Amino acid sequence: MTEQKAPIGGRHVRIDALSKLSGECRYVADISLPGMLHAAVAIAPQAPGRLLSLDSSRAGKMPGVRAVITASDLPAANLVGVIFPDQPLLVEERIRMVGDRLALIAAEDAEMAWEAARVVDFEIEEEEGVYDCVRALEAGSPTLHGDSNLLKTFHVLRGEVEAEKDSAAVTIEAEYHIGGQDHAYLETQGCLAVPEGDRITIIASCQCPFYIQQAVSRVLGIPLASVRVEQAATGGAFGGKEDYPSEPAACAAVLAWKTRRPVRLIYPREFDLQVSTKRHAMVIRHHWGADAGGRLRFAEVDCILDGGAYAGLSTVVAERANVSAIGPYDVPAVKVETRIALTNNLFGGAYRGFGQPQVSVAAEATMDRLARKLGMDPLEFRRINALDDERNTTCTGQALPQPVMALPCLDQATEMAEASPAPRKAPESWLRGRGIGLSIYGINLHRGGQFLDRSSAVLILQPDASLIVRIGLTEMGQGVLTSIQTVAAQAMGLPVERVQVWQPDTTTVADSGPTVASRGTHSAGRAVLDAVRRLRERLDPIAAELLGCDAGEIRLEAGFALDSTGAKRIEIAEVVREMSGRRIESIATGWYRSEDRVFDEATGQGEPYSSYAVACHVADVAVDPELGLVRVERVCAAHDIGKVIHRTGAEGQVQGGIVQAMGWVLTEDLKLEKGRLINPSFTDYLIPTADDAPAFEIALLEDAPGRGPFGAKGLGEPSFIPAGAAIRNAVSQALGVEIDRTPLLPPTIVEAMGEEHPLAELIRSIRG
Question: Please, are residues 442 and 461 in contact by the beta-carbon 8 Å criterion?
């Protein structure tokens, strides 16, 4: 037998690569059914206001229109809010956000439907709005829901801040304005609703089919068991398809329920940009201090999230931002207050990093400022203050297990950066700078959301020893199908090509919660291992009988069952045929749930997460001091990954996270005027291209096993979080000025350089 390498840590071809490269992969827009109608949505073009009248009769008479639905036509609850019941599917009276839905249209083709949506007649009484999250919390500001715009407040309280202020030799007070971001997924929001008697099937581009199932059940007034949700191939998500797809799915479902025909809803790009959720913009105020030896003594953080018009997922985003605001540093006294302000802007949702990138930019900027004020190198200042094996307690009072990976990641990233000069991708006349971003990320869901921290898996071992795997977590381009294929192949001793992993369907697996928080491989992998354990309780005794050894001796490897010596072996396929002949079940379910944790929400003390992953990025940038242009030339990234599952996929995650963070911190400017996005296209909303990608140097450290399968840790979000901070710090270092606002657009950079800059007056006149 030819020796085969174990699947774990390999570079085998992604399970979905061939179908996507060949064009055979079917996204929602590729699926067409006989009699299918196309949906469109009429939305409010201004906010806030009161809907005085709504007349859809003209739309209903348009050619090809088969149904028009307003709030009064809904079959059951007019509600799509995921956590709080504050968001209607269709406006009844109050308009809070540009994009609030007024009417739904189904027509014979998409062009007819969207044309009909444009002729829905309405009258809106304009009201005073609030579009600034700081002003929203001030007395006398107009309110969106009830008597206050304060949705919720979170705290971290540790040590005696006032007492520690006396021991600080230097302090920094700063206010950071951190911008939002659109997800810019290649495939816009889309779904297909198919009525089937007293039940309905939804095929959707999504991150959580179970959220959609709940929303459709609610608006149609039918049992969850009557709603089947199948995840279609999903062309990117990054958090933007966690909770939001429940809204278009509910729209398509009520139209399909009324017309008794399949209804497909695909958002045009500009519409998607205008109405979908965004990364939260934040205003973050810091007061931090360090002693003369460079030790941090205290850190005060006041953070305000712009939640937008509805609660959405803002509370769980704020939870993570709150406990992550200090970073991976040892600080004896901490006071963090994180508030969510409701405004009439587009509402904030999940986005890669989930609130942590924003607070990390602020924390790492303040670390640099303190170092400079002390006359220290920012690298050495971080070495002095980073959590380690002796000082291993986080700001929430949680003791980290050894080894603590902050210093190893910091040293590895900086060693790579110092080993060779960064490639010069910009003119020699530009200024060069280097910045560090160091972060610690809590894997999986925060303790406040641990009730969702579960995962289901189903394994079906075929007579030829190929394996079908069903999981409840979703593939959205991040590679979870390949990771789970690898985990299952390793655990079952099969070549990876003998394992097929299928995307979720709510009729085949139990509710596994959302695919977020870098939990795909962690949670689904643990569920798969549980199913493998149960399956092998039946398979191993049969193999042992055929080999003449004890069941406890059996190991599975490269398609064979072997005894403890390896001298005796038999093909797994032969064992499965024997099981089949004896009518022994070859299907098994698996389940994962995280361990219960203790956390005091009043003080922010306890265990918000069960395990952590550290990452350090060192960015080399070039800046044109005349025009304020920035080029990222190289990023050296060191990641505490626990165990590499699929090496090519892991490296791709790091590269993708860095490039996406580049866009957020440098070019992606959400231009809102009274809550309306005025640059809803990729012509004006600028995302990085392949030409913008820097050189990458990546180290994946496997020294500290995590709690995922085979010791793996999550990587999707840690790959993003430190990059924005490193780039911001590099730009500030190159220019010798502090820049406290992102994105770092050329006008922002010019303004930061002061009145002496030749373009300062021009920028001031343009901005009025």
Answer: no
CA distance 53 to 72: 13
C-alpha to C-alpha distance for 182 and 348, rounded to whole angstroms: 10
Tens digits of per-residue pLDDT, 611-665?
Answer: 999 999 999 999 999 999 999 999 999 999 999 999 999 999 999 999 999 999 9
CATH, domain 282-395+404-446+601-766, list 3.30.565.10, 3.30.365.10, 3.40.50.150, 3.40.50.300: 3.30.365.10
Count Cβ atoms below 10 Å from residue 94 Cβ, excluding itself: 15
Tokens representing 167?
Answer: 């021991």
**DSSP secondary structure, 637-668, as one string:** EEEE-SS-SBHHHHHHHHHHHHHHHHHHHHT-
> CA 92, 94, 96, 98: dihedral to nearest 10 degrees?
60
Fill in the amino acid letter for 322: N
Distances 263 to 196, 411, 490 between C-alpha atoms, Å: 12, 55, 42
547-575 pLDDT, tens digit per residue, is 999 999 999 999 999 998 888 999 999 99
Q: Average pLDDT for residues 35-56, to the nearest whole number? A: 98
Angle at 339 between CA 334 and CA 343, to 5 degrees: 155
Q: What is the pTM of this model?
A: 0.95
| Alpha-carbon gap, residue 327 to 734, rounded angstroms | 24
Indicate the length of the chain as a whole number. Answer: 768
